[in-house]
Design brief:
disordered C terminus, two-stranded antiparallel sheet, mainly alpha, 5 domains, 7 strands, Helix Hairpins, Butyryl-CoA Dehydrogenase, subunit A, domain 3, elongated
Length: 718
């Protein structure tokens, strides 16, 4: 459990950021690393970096860069084969780590050699964006290889098996991210060719276009480039939306499975320690109390001063008669029988208190989850906003003269995809950082918006609805109910107003009484066909909500036909609950009814059910325990439906159709088919005779049974 980040989050990070490192490595390869800022028309003037003249790199620098790019691609390919289980984990993951470390080392050596042997001469020369792309690629290779080392260490120490345990959404995210960077890098190559831009500038243009920022510092000038913009931007925006959606689902899934459930488990254990451990412990306490009372009564009877001699003698004779008749006063004969009659309702109420505690924990966990997600999204957004402003201030301040607050404004405009264009990256370092920053920062605002919708916006909608009920869209009876809840509001009203309100309330109550009488009559008329349904069937179907007293007084074990019918009604009910918009949360009384049905399908006779209920209570699990159904990852409706279906399968396995009855039904069907064929041939008169004969018994070989009557012993098979 402590290594969940290494086992799940690290592989996702490596797989999604690996293609970005490859794209950065391509940008470092195809772009010269130095720029000449001298103006050819004016020897004393300097050109801006975006219009400077590139200086050709040494040959050794180029081929070392090629080797680094190849090794980086091969390392990413091994990681992809690892995710698809084409190559074993113990082979592919070390290969990825080794290749990325080598690629990082080659780039660092190349950068160091360039800075030592061919550094640009200030102030008329400087490093281009390609140099900064190489630094970024080396940093990503080192970071990703290092975190994969943590994943490998976790496997070596036995914290998880040798494969990436990823869900379908997480695998989809990896594939979508790969295609997105292919689309981004390929589009940059096409636009660099069409517009004559440097590859890094074209990559920056494609990024700004897909993110719908549009600063306006780069735009297509040719007809072919403008025509290509339509399919390129459409495909890129769709891919970006899919990637952001997958990132949000994956982060939500990780938080739900690891962080939220861990917090909920911690709170559950704390609550469990403050309550009664199990219903068995409650029973034990009741038994001990009963036995203590029996011992106290025996001691009191033994004292001559405590009761009259006749009363003491009568008590002793009663005690001795029980022994002489062969019925010793054991726990099962005294305390157990009293518990069976008097303590079942107490057990149900005790379990209901634990059930209510678990429901309260669930509500608190849901509130904590929403607050935690909002805090995390807000923190990530703030970090990218403020830290990004610092980076742009350092990268752009020396060239454009921007101060920190102007870069804060620029980051806000960029991260919200506003893009006025008054500020835009003007240096190679600024555009390199903007590419990385924007790809990671823009999804953060999407996550923040989603979390705000589920928390702040939801609370605002609830508040605005309540305000509307009192103001522009008044709800019927809202003021009268408010006055009834707060009587002090009516102290300032006039006496006539109070009298009018009293008369109005009396009239309204009379109208409501008449409406209730009419509704009851309609229900009685509409439910006349369903009036034959028993209370137990109504409980199973969810038509009537049972009380604790009714549940404690239910019959121990229904017959086979009744059990099959109740299981079918309960299955239909839970299947309907699955179609509702939100997950259904059952009441405690409903859980008790479901548990009884599940237990009935396992028990063989009524004595077994009675003994089990006396020992464990009506509910078989501890609501605050680890195996509580409310701790399951399924919804409550799914959990109950699975258990009810298993119970129905057990019932059918234990109550198979009798062979003689099945053969009789088959013969009866064949006889009916022969009679029907004969009646069609003989005409209407013969048909009437056949119809009259159908009410009598049909004689088959070794089988006589009326057609309209089923054997009583097989009635449950209907």
């Amino acid at each position: 459990r402590d290594w969940w980040f290494a086992s799940t989050a690290i592989p996702i990070l490596a797989a999604t950021l690996g293609p970005l490192a490859n794209v950065l490595s391509i940008g470092a390869l195809v772009t010269f690393w130095r720029l000449d800022l001298r103006d050819p028309t004016d020897a004393t003037a300097t050109l801006p970096q975006l219009k400077a003249i590139p200086i050709r790199d040494p040959r050794w620098c180029y081929w070392i860069n090629v080797a680094s790019l190849i090794l980086g691609f091969v390392g990413n390919f091994f990681l992809l084969l690892n995710f698809t289980n084409r190559i074993r984990y113990i082979i592919s993951l070390p290969m990825t780590i080794i290749l990325w470390f080598i690629s990082c080392g080659i780039l660092i050596g190349d950068l160091t050699a360039m800075h030592v042997y061919a550094r640009p001469i200030a102030p008329y020369e400087t490093y281009s964006g390609g140099f900064w792309y190489a630094i970024a690629a080396a940093s990503f290779y080192f970071l990703l290889a290092s975190i994969l080392m943590v994943n490998l260490v976790g496997y070596v120490r036995g914290h998880y098996p040798q494969y990436f345990d990823l869900t379908e959404d997480q695998r989809t995210l990896i594939v979508q991210t790969m295609f997105y960077f292919i689309w981004l890098g390929g589009g940059a190559g096409v636009y660099a060719r069409l517009e004559g831009w440097q590859y890094n500038d074209a990559l920056y243009y494609c990024d700004v276009t897909i993110l719908t920022i549009g600063f306006g510092d780069l735009y297509p000038t040719r007809t072919a480039s403008r025509a290509l913009l339509i399919p390129f931007s459409l495909g890129g925006i769709i891919m970006l939306g899919l990637v952001v959606s997958s990132i949000y689902r994956s982060v939500q899934e990780l938080g739900e499975q690891k962080i939220t459930r861990s917090h909920f488990e911690h709170q559950r254990q704390r609550t469990e320690g403050r309550t009664v451990a199990t219903s068995l412990e409650l029973q034990r306490k009741e038994i001990e109390a009963e036995m203590a009372r029996e011992r106290a009564m025996a001691k009191q009877a033994a004292k001559p001063s405590s009761r009259s001699p006749a009363t003491a003698l009568q008590y002793q004779l009663t005690m001795s008669s029980g022994v002489s008749m062969g019925r010793p006063l054991t726990r099962s004969s005294t305390v157990g029988s009293r518990m069976k009659k008097n303590n079942r309702i107490k057990l149900l109420r005790g379990e209901k208190r634990r059930f209510d505690e678990m429901r309260k924990l669930q509500q608190n966990a849901k509130l904590w989850k929403n607050s935690w997600r909002l805090s995390l999204s807000l923190s990530i957004f703030t970090i990218f906003w403020c830290v990004g402003a610092v980076a742009f201030w350092k990268a752009e301040g020396g060239t454009t003269g921007q101060n920190y607050w102007e870069t804060v404004y620029f980051c806000w405009v960029a991260i919200l995809s506003i893009g006025y264009g008054d500020f835009a990256p003007k240096t190679g370092a600024g555009r390199c950082f903007f590419l990385i920053w924007s790809i990671i920062a823009v999804p953060s605002i999407t996550m923040l918006a989603s979390d705000l919708t589920s928390t702040v916006v939801s609370a605002f909608n609830t508040w605005s609805s309540k305000v509307a009920d009192f103001t522009i869209l008044p709800k019927e009876g809202i003021w009268s109910s408010l006055v009834e809840k707060h009587p002090w509001l009516s102290l300032g009203l006039a006496k006539a107003t109070r009298e009018w309100q009293t008369k109005h309330n009396e009239l309204r109550k009379r109208v409501e009484t008449l409406e209730n009488i009419l509704k009851e009559k309609e229900k009685e008329e509409g439910s006349s066909s369903a009036g034959t349904m028993s209370k137990d069937d109504a409980y199973a179907a969810g038509i009537i909500s049972p009380s604790l007293e009714a549940l404690s007084a239910q019959a121990n074990l229904p017959d086979a036909a009744t059990l099959a019918r109740q299981l079918a009604l309960a299955i239909r009910r839970t299947a309907h609950d699955l179609t509702l918009d939100g997950p259904r949360a059952y009441k405690y009384e409903e859980w008790v009814e479901f548990t009884r049905l599940i237990r009935f399908s396992v028990a063989k006779d009524a004595n077994e059910v009675a003994e089990e209920e006396d020992e464990e209570g009506l509910v078989q699990w501890d609501w605050l325990g680890e195996n509580s159904p409310m701790m399951a990852e399924q919804s409550e409706s799914e959990f109950v439906l699975d258990r009810l279906c298993e119970s129905l399968v057990r019932y059918l396995r234990r109550n198979p159709p009798v062979e003689r009855f099945a053969m009789g039904v088959k013969e009866r069907g064949e006889d009916a088919l022969r009679l029907r064929t004969k009646s069609m041939a003989e005409g209407d008169a013969a048909e009437g005779q056949v119809g009259a004969g159908m009410t009598g018994p049909v004689e088959g070989e070794g089988f006589k049974v009326p057609l309209h009557v089923l054997p009583e012993e097989h009635e449950g098979l209907n």
